Amino acid sequence: MSNSMDVDLLIELGLVETTAAVVSHLSNGVPASLREIALSSGMELSQAASGLRQCRFRGWVDSDESPSIGRGRPSRRWSLIVSQLELLRELESEIRQQHLILNDAIRNVERSLAILGSSR
Q1: Which of 40, 58, 79, 87 could connect to 31 by a Cys-Cys bridge, CB 3.0–4.6 Å?
Q2: Rounded to two decimals, what is the model's pTM?
Q3: What is the dihedral sign for C-alpha 116, 117, 118, 120?
Q4: Residue 93 confidence (pLDDT) above 80
């Protein structure tokens, strides 16, 4: 079992707090229910569900159903299905892409400023 990823680091790398909290909780390798994730991170159930949706959209988590005790729906247990290294590499790639976009925007502004400056 590996150590959990730090929530603050994940936020610094661009994840919203709810998603970072879900990733952090599940990064220890132990499957967890929505309620367990919410309780451990101090989030409301709706916030934890939102973080799980984002993780599911990104393909980082999967769930299985365990039989319910008594009546009601089967319980879902969520697991992180990418390694911490894969997740960090994906975030690094996104940051690099954002960096390129910002550099292009800066160059465009500089060109515009140069054109405006030369027309005066």
Answers
A1: 79
A2: 0.81
A3: positive
A4: yes
